[in-house]
Amino acid sequence: MLVQTAIVNSNLNYKDMKKKLFIGIDFSKETIDVSFFEREKEKEFNYSEFENNKDGFTSMLKWIKSLSAVNVQEWIFCGEHTGLYSIELASFLVKKKFFIWLENPLQIKLSSGIKREKTDEIDSLDIALYASRFQDRAKEYQLPDKSFFALQNLLAFRERLVKNKVSLQVSANETRRVHKRDKTASYIYEHSMREIERLDKEIQNAEKQMLEIIEKDEKLAENYYLVKSVKGIGIINTVTILVHTQNFTTFENSRQFASFAGMAPFEDSSGTSRKRGKHIKKLGTNKEMKALLTQAARSAVVYDEELRSYYQRKLAEGKLQKVVINNVRNKLLHRIFAVVAKKQPFQKNYMNPLSVA
Questions:
Q1: HSE value, Cβ hemisphere, 13 Å, CA-based, for 234
Q2: Could you tell me if 198 and 127 lie in one domain?
Q3: Among the ranges 3-17, 29-43, 66-80, which has the highest mean pLDDT value?
Q4: Domain co-membership, 25 together with 97
Q5: How many distinct structural domains can be found in the chain?
Q6: Radius of gyration, alpha carbons of the chain
Q7: Angle at 140 between CA 329 and CA 218, to 5 degrees
């Protein structure tokens, strides 16, 4: 286990801060990188790496306590909200009554400025510094209901099934194409088709289990059918959005969620010499969510008359297809958050009653 003490080059303003120990966590699949420093000793920090599991978390707490006498009630853990990689530690700390704040990765990265180097150690320190500077923005992580973990696991299981099906399909078709009259190739193809049929049934069963979980929760069920009322949004889009937003409790609006998914355009201009206009920043992109919403957007421009007209008009104006598709993705997100906020299914040509004379 690597332990390091170094100097923090930072002019921090700690006025009216409640917490005294700032702990930054950088998550990865197998490990967590941890940096912390005390408010009264802001020029020194400690760093170490631990396994991303319960034994590693226990070792982390013992390590921090061995180096700091600050009361645990004055600790604040902060990390990037990275889904599966961050959920286990967050759950562990919540059950232990620690304060943990999971922040949008893009928000943290934009606050860090230009970096000459990027390592897991530096990233964890940046997160600790972020927690100290913006403690007034901290939101304590709330442990989701068990149904969210079940849905998350089913989504991951379904994704594995789909990948296996696609891999088998591609391989079988290629074998048949190259060895058209070969008996072995025919056997492989026929056996693969039977396996693909089985995988299709397993995928359907996984989706059925998702719906059963949702139907048992009144609030989940209400928002599920509201989201699905938006054309282009199917069951997997809907369930994934419900999981990532924890049933629309972790994001205030569609703009925030678009930033999380890596779809929100940001202005990039300065003075008269830099005029790039709005473009998407890749920092903090949730590629899975972005891909699903891309599929939804492509479906929407086929089946939704208004979005199809918009799509065709923008292409005729010379806009890049990827830009138009991103605009459609954002329009879909706006509709999704709107129907949930209003508690009304999506209606074509909806008119706000307050605007009617």
A1: 12
A2: no
A3: 66-80
A4: yes
A5: 3
A6: 24
A7: 60
